[in-house]
Design a protein that fits this description.
Shape: globular
Strand content: 15-25%
Distance between the termini: 31 Å
Structural class: alpha/beta
CATH superfamily: Vaccinia Virus protein VP39
Helix content: 40-55%
Order of helices and strands: HHEHEHEEHEHHHEE
Bound molecules: S-adenosylmethionine
CATH class: Alpha Beta
Largest sheet: 7 strands, mixed
Number of domains: 1
CATH topology: Rossmann fold
Length: 253
């Protein structure tokens, strides 16, 4: 029996709609809360992903799916690409990102942020050398639909890098993690963003999301090969890699 997706609000609206509304609501405080709640570790996690990507590709074209306020797109500048596109469904998050790029004097021709749904967009067929997603796939309405669409947007031999929360394997850290996510995060979220549900959703969505091998199974199911993961910070998060296979001669991908 298909399971109901974990959503932030108990409403009849689709998960995509609820997620867009939630991020629109918290967009102005997202960056600061992200840094406070993760104690700044999220920057180190993105850097670890960039190091992993460098082992596989020197990308010219990059798509940052679920770019939010553009932090992973900015981190990808270290890869010296020609162009980075950031895609998100939340106008509020994108507007914060666009302001950030303006302040940093990064031109549109280098990083462009666009409003679109990565699960359903029909743009960019076989267009990108690299697709990155940080803390985005957990929010998809339909995970395999999103992964398959990213596979479509990659060139043959293109690389997908997913950064996502996982689950610590060590017992002592798991207890601490539970306490922090279940008690402290929603409290800080309520005080700072007036949307406690958004931060309760964070815990529920992380818990129900496939981790490690279970997630690489999804990558393989949706066409990726040479998949693997690297656990970061004792498994609090994980960097996943998948490659789009070169098609045999004459085949249509
Ligand atoms: C937790 S934020 C992550 C933002 C950014 N990647 C980061 O590392 O800070 C998740 C983002 O995913 C976006 N998102 C969720 N589902 C999406 C979809 N189907 N297509 C595009 N963006 C999506 C949300 O709007 C939100 O901005």
């Amino acid at each position: 029996m298909p399971t109901q997706p974990v959503t932030p609000y108990s409403s009849d609206a689709s998960k995509n709609h609820q997620i867009r509304d939630m991020f629109n609501r918290i967009s102005k405080r997202y960056d600061i809360l992200n840094t406070v709640l993760s104690l700044g570790i999220h920057r180190y996690w993105r850097k670890s992903c960039i190091r992993e990507i460098k082992l596989h590709i020197k990308p010219k074209t990059i798509l940052d799916v679920a770019t939010g306020t553009g932090d992973f797109a900015l981190a990808c500048l270290q890869l010296h690409p020609d162009k980075i596109t950031g895609m998100d469904i939340s106008r509020g998050m994108l507007d914060v990102g666009i302001n950030k790029l303006r302040q940093l004097k990064i031109p549109n021709s280098k990083i462009e942020l666009i409003e679109d749904n990565a699960e359903t967009t029909s743009m960019f067929n076989q267009h990108f050398d690299l697709i990155v997603v940080a803390f985005g796939v957990r929010n998809f309405e339909n995970l395999n639909r999103g992964l398959a669409n990213m596979h479509r947007m990659l060139k043959p031999n293109g690389v997908l890098c997913v950064l996502e929360f996982a689950y610590p394997q060590k017992n002592w850290l798991r207890h601490l993690y539970h306490f922090y996510f279940k008690r402290i995060v929603p409290l800080i979220g309520r005080i700072c963003s007036a949307d406690e549900k958004a931060y309760a959703y964070l815990f529920n969505s992380v818990q129900s999301f496939p981790h490690f091998d279970a997630f690489t199974d999804h990558l393989r199911e949706t066409g990726f090969s040479k998949t693997y993961y690297k656990a970061l910070s004792f498994g609090i998060s994980s960097c996943y890699i998948g490659i789009k296979k070169t098609a045999p001669e004459g085949a249509v991908i």
